[in-house]
Structure formats: C-alpha cells, structure tokens
Amino acid sequence: EVVIRVRDLYKVYRMGDTKVYALNGVDLDIRRGEFCAITGPSGSGKSTLLNMLAGLEHPSKGEIVIAGKHIEKLNEKQLVTFRRERVGFIFQSYNLIATMDAVENVALPLSFRGMGKAKRAKRAKEYLKLVGLERFMTHMPNQMSGGQQQRVGIARALAVDPQIIFADEPTGNLDSKTTMEVLKLMQTIVRERNQTLVMVTHDNNLATYADRIIKIIDGKIVSIEENHKEADLE
Ligand code: ADP
Ligand code: ADP
C-alpha cells in the first residue's frame, strides 16, 4: 500500500536573476510501514523534499498524494490541520520548549488536538516510558543529554499516533553510540506500529539501516536501493 506518492515534483527558488532547481522532477512511492532514507550530499535537495512531503513548503510544480490527499492543493490552514493530524516530526536540534519539562513537551501536540489535560499527561508519560525515559519525566531539556532530548523528541512525534514520521538528520547532533541507540529506537517503534518513517541523512552509513535508500543529487533521484539485509543495530 502506497502512503506517499510523488509525481514530477519541482521546487525552484529564485535568487535574484538566477533560479535554483532544488528539486528537478522527482517521482517516488513510499509504502506503509517502510523505513525510507533520503540521502545525498549537502545542498542536493533532501530537506526541500522532506519539507514538501511534510506540508511545510509548497512545490513549484507536481503532485504529492499522502493517504489519498493531494497535499499540493491544500491552503495554509488545511496544511496546518494536515500536519497536526497526520504526521510527526523529529528534528536535528530536537526543538524542545526550554521552559517545559519532558511530560509537558510531549503533551503539547496533544493539546493542539484538543485532548484534555489529564489525558494528555497520561499519554505523554506512556510515550516517555516507551522511549526509556521513565526517570526523566520532570526533567527540563537542559537537564538532559542530547540523546535523552532526542528521545523526548521521538516521544513527542509518536504520541499523536501519526501515520507518517518525518525526521531530518535526527542524529546529526549526537555521538556515534547515541546515534545507534536513537536509530534503533525509531526503527523498532515504527516497525511495531507499521508506521512509515522517512529520514533525511547525509550519512551513508546511517542510510544502510533503512529498508530503502533514496539517493538525491542536484534535485534528482539518482538511485533507489532496496535494502534486504536485516540491519544489525546491536
Ligand atoms: P540538502 O537538504 O540536501 O542539504 P536543501 O534541500 O537544503 O539541500 O537545498 C537544496 C538547494 O536549494 C540548495 O542549492 C539550497 O541552497 C537551495 N535552497 C534551499 N532552500 C532555499 C531557499 N529558501 N531559498 C533559496 N535557495 C534555497
Ligand atoms: P549521553 O551518553 O546519553 O549523551 P551524557 O554523558 O551527556 O549522556 O550524560 C550522562 C548523564 O548526565 C545523563 O544521565 C544525563 O541525564 C545527565 N546530564 C547530562 N547533561 C546534564 C545537564 N546539563 N544537567 C543535568 N544532568 C545532565
């Protein structure tokens, strides 16, 4: 079952007189339950693609169909609703709110969905347990290591039970040991729930843990590689 369908996608940025083709005709299908890595050198268009799939930016041309919905046809207000209801985000810099503890950070997107206070605190705690942070519920972001903060970020993305999770260089600020832990955690959780994970990374090594590796150069897909080996993240 295809959950993300991209057809003939273009993104052109105008820089004065010159045009930058950040995406130059991308076609792509992503299936339910798939862990997909988008890889390629810096400036190749990875973030641009992810941002468009996630409904953060409008394409210049082309189609993005997510769970049967044409994302490119939504207006700003509809996009906000789409992002809140359908997708989860994991960021390189965690993007936690510094003045909120772990539970409050995870509960925040649930409040946007109108969930009551007691219920969202309960749900936030469940997800913090799931990512191994039972002892850090009331810690503030600056009282946690990078790996712990990213676990809060993962819990926050997952707590809304999204169909699709987008992660842009999620381990970019972590050391290699913590990177493996965080990657394994994301992989295990999305597999168990049959969720779709789309991860951008410039690191070919990390991409090898995905089910499929999509390589982009100069705004074009240059290869799509099925990864049949059972990734050993131990
Ligand atoms: P990557 O994520 O692979 O590093 P990006 O998607 O960030 O690449 O960028 C792709 C290309 O588009 C680059 O040439 C970049 O400079 C350009 N670009 C990205 N965002 C903008 C923008 N807001 N305005 C102008 N050019 C941009
Ligand atoms: P990791 O190996 O996961 O990156 P660190 O070595 O950074 O962890 O941190 C080890 C321990 O110290 C963790 O239990 C973490 O909670 C705690 N810790 C890290 N940074 C801070 C901080 N700024 N304030 C309080 N505790 C911290």
Describe the structure.
The protein is of the alpha/beta class and 234 residues long. Helix content is 34%, strand content 29%. The protein contains seven helices and ten strands. A six-stranded mixed sheet has the order 6-7-8-3-9-10, with helices on both faces. A four-stranded antiparallel sheet has the order 2-1-4-5, with helices on one face. Helix 3 packs across helix 4. The protein starts with a strand and ends in an 8-residue tail after the last strand. The model has no long low-confidence stretch (mean pLDDT 94). One adenosine-5'-diphosphate (ADP) binds at residues 142-148, 178. One adenosine-5'-diphosphate binds next to strand 1, strand 2 and helix 1.
Give the SSE map.
Elements: E1 2-15, E2 18-31, E3 35-39, H1 46-53, E4 61-66, E5 69-70, H2 76-86, E6 87-90, H3 102-112, H4 117-130, H5 146-159, E7 164-168, H6 176-193, E8 196-201, H7 204-207, E9 212-217, E10 220-226
Parallel strand pairs: 3-8, 3-9, 6-7, 7-8
Antiparallel strand pairs: 1-2, 1-4, 4-5, 9-10
Features:
six-stranded mixed β-sheet, alpha/beta, four-stranded antiparallel β-sheet, globular
